[in-house]
Each structure stands twice: as structure tokens, then as C-alpha cells.
Amino acid sequence: QVQLVESGGGLVQPGGSLRLSCAASGSIFSIRTVAWYRQAPGKECELVARITSGGSTNYADSVKGRFTISRNNAGNTMYLQMNSLKPEDTAVYYCYAGTFPYADYWGQGAQVTVSS
């Protein structure tokens, strides 16, 4: 099993930056895919960014050029650097890990609020 603990959310003004972290513990050697999702009030959960098992990165069109997903060399922490934040980025952000054998793991969620 894998445990994911997020940190780094908060309140930021439009145009500002935040970095989310997600610390993984447990069977981290089994992790294949990592990603960040978000859910805004009244909206469905959406994929924000992903690192595939092959090392490729994918981003939602709405965050391309502003957000960067990364993972440390030890593979036990993932990050989401968010720049040029907009009010529409306000959401609860969840980190995700997909493992082999197949299982899905989620962080507890971090509130990000972009407001002046």
C-alpha cells in the first residue's frame, strides 16, 4: 500500500504562485503513474497534470505553461508548481498515485484559493 500526504495549499492573490507537495510512503517502488487532480465547487474532478510510467508529462490545456509537475529522484515526493494563478484555479487539489499491481491511491486534498 501507498500513503500520500499533501501540503502547501493556501490563499494567494491572482498572478501569484504556490507549490503543492505530496509525500509518499509505503510501497513507493510500486508507483508507476503520479498525477494531480482538482475539484472546484460544483464541478467534476479534473486531471491537472500527470507523469506517466514512461516519464512523459501531460497537462490540462487550462494550466499549460503555468503549472509544472515533478517528482524527486527518490520517487517519494511529487510537486505541483503553480504560477500565474487565476481565480478559476481555485479548487481542492488531490495528488494521485497509480501502482503495479493495479491500485489507486489519493492524498487527503489541499485547498487552493486564488482571490484578491
Based on the model shown, name its key terms.
116 residues; 7-stranded mixed beta sheet; 11 strands; 4-stranded antiparallel beta sheet; mainly beta
In a nutshell, what does this entry contain?
The protein has strands at residues 2-7, 10-12, 18-26, 31-39, 46-51, 57-59, 67-71, 77-82, 91-99, 103-106, 110-114.
Using the alpha-carbon principal axes, give the shape: globular
Strand segment tally: 11
- Tell me the strand percentage band: over 45%
Termini gap: 40 Å
Poorly predicted regions are: none
Question: What is the helical fraction, as a range of percent?
Answer: under 10%
Q: What profile does the largest beta sheet have?
A: 7 strands, mixed
Tally the helices: what do you get? 0
- Global structural class: mainly beta
- The residue-averaged pLDDT reads 96
- Assembly state (oligomeric): single chain
Radius of gyration: 14 Å
- SSE topology string: EEEEEEEEEEE
Structural features, described:
- It is a single chain.
- The protein has 116 residues and is mainly beta.
- The chain is built from no helices and eleven strands.
- A hairpin with a 5-residue loop joins strand 5 and strand 6 (57-59).
Topology record:
Elements: E1 2-7, E2 10-12, E3 18-26, E4 31-39, E5 46-51, E6 57-59, E7 67-71, E8 77-82, E9 91-99, E10 103-106, E11 110-114
Parallel strand pairs: 2-11
Antiparallel strand pairs: 1-3, 3-8, 4-5, 4-9, 5-6, 7-8, 9-10, 9-11
